[in-house]
């Protein structure tokens, strides 16, 4: 299984820290090219490898840590999304007043899935502030939980495996129109940092 993170901002970097901490190889890419990621890679070590976007999009499992408004641009950067597992960490936000964007009643991950034909989309890593996501997920009291939702059970299992490998506890919330609705920006699970005891 190969992994990549698209986006090297707050969320992309928070997740890259967990890949580095757990010695899990990952490619990371942004709009500015691999050279712009040299300092981050220098800090995090050899498991986090800077890549050009086109190379990062070759990974089996791709984490989208880009603005929701950039989804179409990322979609257009890969010729074929068939068979990819895409973990959607985006939030659809109206930045004028930091309210949920008006999506005409559609769910944000359904819009992401429509933009990536053939990919299996999993919503995850979007409910916690980047500074919380970047913290060590395990402590004496338990493990920080990460919710995930998908219409594809195999993709859900793949995401859960990664979530656990990074040190979090995975909680499967079912389909996008079930859990994804609760996870998306404005949903009931936004900004709740839960610890699985034990
Ligand atoms: N920040 C949080 O606490 C938080 C929490 C939960 C969810 N989220 C969601 O996570 C996503 C990322 O948030 P963020 O705060 O990490 O944003 P950010 O700091 O602004 O970083 C965005 C990253 O996306 C990259 N990017 C933009 N368009 C791209 C494209 N077409 N192709 C490749 N890379 C592209 C940018 O590249 P450059 O570096 O080259 O500009 C940048 O590295 C957003 O959807 C946000 O709503 C954020």
How would you describe what is shown here?
This protein has a single domain (about 5-195), classed as NAD(P)-binding Rossmann-like Domain (Rossmann fold). The longest helix is centred in the C-terminal third of the chain and has 13 residues, at about 155-165. The chain contains eight helices and twelve strands. The chain has about 200 residues and is α/β, with parallel strands linked by helices. It has helices at about 10-20, 40-45, 55, 70-75, 110-115, 130-135, 155-165, 175-185; strands at about 5, 25-30, 50, 60-65, 85-90, 95, 100, 120-125, 140, 140-150, 170, 195. The strands form two sheets. Strands 1, 2, 3, 4, 5, 8, 9, 10, 11 and 12 form a ten-stranded mixed sheet that branches. A two-stranded antiparallel sheet has the order 6-7. Helices cover about 30% and strands about 25% of the residues. NADP nicotinamide-adenine-dinucleotide phosphate binds near residues 53, 89, 93, 129 and 130.
Named once each, the bound ligands are: NADP nicotinamide-adenine-dinucleotide phosphate
Provide a count of the helices.
8
CATH superfamily: NAD(P)-binding Rossmann-like Domain
Class inferred from helices and paired strands: alpha/beta
- Rg over CA atoms: 16 Å
Query: Low-confidence parts, pLDDT < 50 over ≥5 residues?
Result: none
Q: How many structural domains can be distinguished in the coordinates?
A: 1
Mean pLDDT equals 97
State the helical fraction.
25-40%
Please describe the biggest sheet, giving its number of strands, its sense, and whether it closes into a barrel: 10 strands, mixed
CATH class, named: Alpha Beta
**H-E string:** EHEHEHEHEEEHEHEEHEHE
Instruction: Assign the CATH topology.
Output: Rossmann fold
User: Which CATH architecture is right?
Assistant: 3-Layer(aba) Sandwich
End-to-end Cα distance = 29 Å
């Amino acid at each position: 299984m190969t992994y990549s993170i698209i986006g090297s901002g707050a969320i992309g970097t928070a997740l890259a820290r967990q890949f580095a901490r757990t010695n899990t190889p990952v490619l990371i890419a942004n709009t500015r090219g691999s050279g712009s990621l040299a300092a981050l890679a220098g800090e995090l070590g050899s498991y986090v490898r800077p890549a050009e976007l086109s190379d990062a999009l070759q990974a089996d499992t791709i984490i989208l840590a880009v603005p929701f408004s950039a989804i179409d641009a990322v979609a257009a950067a890969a010729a074929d999304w068939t068979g990819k597992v895409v973990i959607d960490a985006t939030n659809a936000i109206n930045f004028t007043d930091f309210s949920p964007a008006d999506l005409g009643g559609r769910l944000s991950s359904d819009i992401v899935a429509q933009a990536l034909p053939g990919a299996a989309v999993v919503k995850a890593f979007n409910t916690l502030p980047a500074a919380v996501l970047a913290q060590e997920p395990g402590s004496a009291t338990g493990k920080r939980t990460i919710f995930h939702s998908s219409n594809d059970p195999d993709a859900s299992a793949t995401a859960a495996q990664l979530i656990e490998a990074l040190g979090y506890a995975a909680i499967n919330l079912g389909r996008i129109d079930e859990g994804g609705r609760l996870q998306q920006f404005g949903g009931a699970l936004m900004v709740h940092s839960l610890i699985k005891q034990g």
